[in-house]
Design a protein that fits this description.
Helix content is 42%, strand content 15%. The protein is of the alpha+beta class. The chain contains three helices and four strands; from the N terminus they run H-H-E-E-E-E-H. The strands form two sheets. The chain has a two-stranded antiparallel ribbon with strand order 1-4.
Amino acid sequence: MYVIAIYHLRLGIEVPNVLKNIGNMITRKENYNNIPVKYCDKCLSLKIKGLEDSIIEYCDSCGNSDILKTHIYSHMEKYKEMYGKYFITRD
């Protein structure tokens, strides 16, 4: 569908909004891994919860309130150092 949208744009044919959004979705997916993740400083869990209307955050796995923020790839390496395997595996 993405190729069809580009083809239509080159011909000057009106492209439906659905096809226009495909290009935006691809760009967002490429940038998704650049979004910082919050994790527990104690157990490295990504299960971070926050109380509604509050700045208090805590780990849902161990209850720790020391929450850090980093890039997903940094978290993956820290997790591997601590547990000897990756939290997220690529199949």
